[in-house]
Amino acid sequence: xxxxxxxxxxxxxxxxxxxxxxxxxxxxxxxxxxxxxxxxxxxxxxxxxxxxxxxxxxxxxxxxxxxxxxxxxxxxxxxxxxxxxxxxxxxxxxxxxxxxxxxxxxxxxxxxxxxxxxxxxxxxxxxxxxxxxxxxxxxxxxxxxxxxxxxxxxxxxxxxxxxxxxxxxxxxxxxxxxxxxxxxxxxxxxxxxxxxxxxxxxxxxxxxxxxxxx
Amino acid sequence: xxxxxxxxxxxxxxxxxxxxxxxxxxxxxxxxxxxxxxxxxxxxxxxxxxxxxxxxxxxxxxxxxxxxxxxxxxxxxxxx
Lengths: 214, 80
Description:
Chain A is of the alpha/beta class.
């Protein structure tokens, strides 16, 4: 059961994700965004960063990378796909999760721990957590506010206190089936007490479990 | 041909940057400013002879890449 961690030019969290998944006993490999074959993998993580320097809109260029057709194909057949921060922005641009992202309400780059609450455990990210469970996870974004005029997005985690103006205080949103999830705070940066929190483990562990059952 | 693409954020989508600029204008005494929207204009040179055909191509560029259909509307103008 292997997870592809996709590397786009300008992302910077791929090694953190790789480390976190491996430390949890999972198997993962970095895959360059120009690859097209993901047949060795059961799941995908799109890590955070600034793909293509955020040119035009966050995620707007990355969504056309050759690998994204395979990601969409896997998403369509129910495989677990997780986008973290910039990865979530890519999933929205690709139409795999409803909505889009705009700048934080106060136009500040937010880089701090935020408390989030799990509100829906029917997703590959939240399946191992409990409804109402609160987690401390670092947020690190500028275009962090999710908007979804369609109302189709399924909010699976909310900020306890609204940091950025995200609609419904959404910190993580899934597609209707729950196998594709975007999350704005970084669970991979909260996987060791040395990092100040290990609350992200329940999320990534749930994702890895979902590979087995997908 | 010279093409101008205007990309406007939909009125119902918040524009925090516009709000901040409006506040700054008010602080400078320009209290008559009622609203500010930080929309975007893209200038392009595009090969082609038929303006209608070219406009349709650029509109396709907008739908695929230049505009985000969740957030934005676009208008394409071809300079004759």
